[in-house]
Amino acid sequence: MDDVHINHLIDEYKDKLQIYHDLCDTMLHLLIYLLENKGYKYQMSHRIKSIESLKNKIMRKADKGIEYSNLSDINDLAGIRIIFYLESDKKHFIRDLYKELTPHNLRLVERNKEKGYRATHIIAEFGEKRLILAEYRRYVGLKCEIQLTSALYHAWSEIEHDIFYKPGKNVKELDQEIIMTLKKELEETLTNYIEKACEQFEHVAACIRNIRSQ
User: Fold this and answer.
1) Cβ atoms within 10 Å of 182's Cβ, excluding its own
2) What confidence tens digit (pLDDT) does each residue in 167-196 have?
3) pTM for this one?
4) pLDDT digits (tens, 9 = 90+) for 99-124
5) 3-state class of 124 per DSSP?
6) Sheet holding 144-150, edge to edge
7) CATH architecture of the domain with range 3-153
8) Any idea where the domains of the chain sit in the sequence?
């Protein structure tokens, strides 16, 4: 991908920053309404992609042979992350979301590494019923990435990311053998403790629900 095309995508994004801000806020309010109305316990964060982050993404993908023809090919310019206490709550919310938004405007992608980050990413667009309304009309063709995960997996992935992908400017490149050893230790922590803790949380929550229903 040549610099001219990259700069064209960046300039187009600069021109559309405000509408992506508005898209993110609008989707955020809809999700909060749904979460609160259904009584979920959750934490939430949101952002739109920075100019620098977008440029790095385009170049990184180009190095792998993936080129973006248009800005609309990039799904995560607006992003929302919802962190649930339980994996089961995440699954229930997905069903609720599919009832709220038109199913064919939602694309679900499971991001489950064998030993690592686990989340459900949903690429969402507003459906026709909303887009005919004046306040939604300008969001035609725009997408927002909604990331859904649970608290323990979120904590694990944040720690892994900060350790291995953000070592700091003053840290010299670590020996690859050391890196692999440390990653293996972290993966064992995930398998031996976090996965089991998630299962135990689900078990305890189910028992409490059964007691309350009696």
Assistant:
1) 14
2) 555 445 556 677 777 777 877 777 777 777
3) 0.80
4) 988 888 899 988 776 555 678 999 99
5) strand
6) 42-48, 78-84, 144-150, 118-124, 106-112
7) 2-Layer Sandwich (3.30)
8) 3-153
